[in-house]
Design goal:
Order of helices and strands: EEEHEHEHEHHHHEHEHH
Structural class: alpha/beta
Distance between the termini: 34 Å
Number of helices: 10
Number of strands: 8
Strand order of the largest sheet: 1-2-4-3-5-6-7-8
Largest sheet: 8 strands, mixed
């Protein structure tokens, strides 16, 4: 099992593919044991792809301490050092996009090109949906609550007119994203705390890497306005909207292709 001694932790990671180096930072509750994942898509066919379970999740260490977004960023930088990468392209998705912002700010010389997908800057620029406020929800209740937030087109009227598709979405969303392993729920709680405290708004102008901000038009988790705000503040940033909600990369087949094109430029 590939384990990196990174930033004082054991981080589980995987690596596959050939090409330019690409670090993929996943979102809330990310666990590489869940399939399909980033290694089953186009990125692993185009890049030397590196990804990992973040602290508190999956097969990585789950210390019972408060996590700061800076810790997550330093974990990512330390993992790059472990595999011998001085620099890499970086894709951060949702919570991973928050980590990627901190990585680009704390370790600017290590990020070649940056993709921030369905994420937000926090602070005055706009925060993402407060997942910490619904930690008490589980199963179908959690799924039904999040479906119209993840994609604002899927409101009550849509659900009534698409009963079979809605039932499928509820079933898919009912699985516990945090599992029942010892320490995992606590680690997930720590991740939600860090998400709540995330705020790069006043520092976005210091990001030096060419940046693509990729967003779903109907994303109620990371609001389009927050992503427009990021694009206005990050130098050399390009904003592209795609036809989808928070999961636009699965809903719009052109999205990942656009990311690949940007990273290969």
């Amino acid at each position: 099992m590939p384990i990196a001694k990174a930033n004082g932790l054991n981080l589980y990671f995987e690596r596959a593919g050939d090409g330019a180096r690409l670090l993929f930072i996943s979102g809330t509750g990310g666990d590489l044991r869940n399939k399909p994942n980033q290694f089953d898509g186009p990125l692993a066919k185009t890049f030397d792809l590196l990804s990992y379970d973040q602290r508190g999740l999956g097969q990585s260490d789950k210390p019972d301490i408060r996590y700061a977004m800076a810790d997550y960023a330093d974990d990512a930088a330390a993992l790059m050092t472990h595999v011998g990468w001085e620099t890499a392209h970086v894709v951060g998705v949702s919570f991973g996009g928050m980590v990627a912002q901190e990585l680009a700010l704390r370790h600017p010389g290590r990020v070649d090109r940056l993709v921030l997908a369905c994420t937000s800057p926090g602070g005055a620029g706009g925060a993402s949906y407060p997942f910490h406020e619904i930690e008490h929800l589980s199963g179908e209740a959690r799924a039904r609550h999040l479906i119209p937030i993840s994609d604002t087109r899927r409101d009550a009227a849509w659900a009534a007119g698409h009963t079979e598709t809605y039932a499928q979405l509820v079933a898919m969303g009912s699985a516990d994203p945090f599992g029942d392993e010892p320490g995992r729920k606590q680690g997930a709680h720590r991740q939600l705390e860090a998400r709540r405290d995330h705020d790069t708004w006043d520092r976005l102008g210091d990001i030096t890497a060419p940046t693509l901000i990729a967003a779903g038009r109907y994303d109620g988790v990371a609001l389009p306005q927050a992503q427009e705000n990021m694009a206005a503040r990050i130098p050399n940033a390009t904003l592209k909207f795609f036809e989808g909600g928070h999961l636009f990369m699965m809903q719009d087949r052109t999205a990942v292709a656009a990311m690949v094109e940007f990273l290969k430029a």
